[in-house]
Each structure stands twice: as structure tokens, then as C-alpha cells.
């Protein structure tokens, strides 16, 4: 069953999620791909149509619990099981705390933390019922260190790391749990930055960015391990990032 897993990916319309979805479809898996921009998902389905697996686009807003429940239920109804969930959807509108962009703090908490929790809430009962499953969270090196302008973003990623680690500790051995923590990766993530100083700093920072395929490789590696091997965390940085 190694290469025909049913894998759900949140935030599959760009960047890391798109690369993960494309790689898993190329490896022969059935990928249920969720995001709000369904035109992007449809284009990805078209681009990967000749690959051995399949890509199934679903409109998904991870901040809406009912939406996340429906995302998981639809996949389960269609395929009869769910082998893995990749909780990848995230936003990063960076700013210093004293800029008081409180609405952006709220949005980061909603997507990066609540969205992850809703994904666990939807997947865990299925995993428990089928006595198998693999939950993969895309956290960040921001789950391990805090940089100026990234206090709230890092706070959400520390939370994502802690919640995922808690899930791992609490889960039966039949349920595997992996955190993938990327360094700087080329994607649309910085487009959500509205604070001019944070945007300028990020522009410089991103000069070393690696391609999202590097993170897709890490996810693929974790999924491909035999059932008694749980890759707990993979940190992938650009070689030039210290
Ligand atoms: P992108 O901006 O390219 O992709 C983000 C994805 O999240 C998009 O597919 C977007 O889809 C989706 N998304 C955002 N909000 C929602 C929502 N409410 N509901 C559903 N989907 C949503 O960024 P990346 O690929 O870089 O980011 C992916 C993950 O990787 C994030 O969790 C990010 O924090 C993490 N990460 C990224 C790093 C980097 O340097 N790029 C480094 C470390 C971690 P849509 O807008 O269509 O809904």
C-alpha cells in the first residue's frame, strides 16, 4: 500500500503545499488538496493529470471548523480511509509588536493555530477508528527561534510545534505524527506582509530561499517509512541560512 495512500493536504494552492501535493501525486498517491483558491487547485489537477496518482481539489477554509470537518469527511466518504493529513496552510503577515496590527495577529492565530487544531479534530477520530494514520504539521524554524517582527508568527509556530508534539505523545503507536520545520523557502508566504519595514527585511532574508520541492522531499520521506518508524521532526534549512 506504500504508494497509494490517501493523503489530505491543506493549503495546496501554492508554495510548499502545492509542491507536496504534486510530489505525492507523482509518487502514485491520491491527494485531496484543499485551499480557498480552487482555480489554483484545478490548475494543479490539470498539470498532474498524467501522473500515476490523482489530485482531487476541494475548497477549504481552515479557519472554519465545519469546512475542515467536511474536507475530511468528503475524503473519507470517497476513499473509505484516510492515511495521512498534511496540515500546511499558514500565513505570515510579519510586523513588530508595537505596530499593533492586532487584526493580523488574530488572522495568524486563526489560520496557523485554530486551523491546525481543527485539522486534528477532524482527522483524529478517523485515525482512531481505523487504528492507523499519519499527521504531518508544517511548522517552521520559527517554532524554535524568535526573530524581530516575527513574535506573533513564531508564537503560532511554537504553538503548532507543541500541539503536534502533544499529539505524538498522546497517540497510539498506530498513529504516526511528524513535524516538518522549514527554513526560508521560496513561496507566496511573504506576500501577506503589510508592514513596510517587515516586508523590506523579509526581502533581504529571502535571498537564500530554497525551492518548496525540498520540503516536499522531507514530507515524502516521512510518509514512506514503514509503519513502525515515526519520523518525529525534520528541520530543513537553506545551506546558507544560519
Ligand atoms: P504560501 O503563501 O505560498 O502558501 C500558503 C498556503 O496556505 C496557500 O495554499 C493558501 O491557500 C493556504 N491558506 C492560507 N490561508 C488559508 C485558509 N484560511 N484556509 C485554507 N488554506 C489557507 O506559503 P508557504 O507555502 O511558504 O507556506 C506553507 C506553510 O509553510 C505555512 O504554514 C508556513 O508558515 C510554512 N513555512 C513556510 C516557510 C517559507 O519560508 N516559505 C518557512 C517555514 C514554514 P489559499 O490562499 O488559496 O487559501
UniProtKB/TrEMBL annotation:
<comment type="similarity">
    <text>Belongs to the short-chain dehydrogenases/reductases (SDR) family.</text>
</comment>
<protein>
    <submittedName>
        <fullName>NADP-dependent 3-hydroxy acid dehydrogenase YdfG</fullName>
    </submittedName>
</protein>
<dbReference type="Pfam" id="PF00106">
    <property type="entry name" value="adh_short"/>
</dbReference>
<dbReference type="InterPro" id="IPR002347">
    <property type="entry name" value="SDR_fam"/>
</dbReference>
<dbReference type="InterPro" id="IPR036291">
    <property type="entry name" value="NAD(P)-bd_dom_sf"/>
</dbReference>
<dbReference type="InterPro" id="IPR020904">
    <property type="entry name" value="Sc_DH/Rdtase_CS"/>
</dbReference>
<keyword id="KW-0560">Oxidoreductase</keyword>
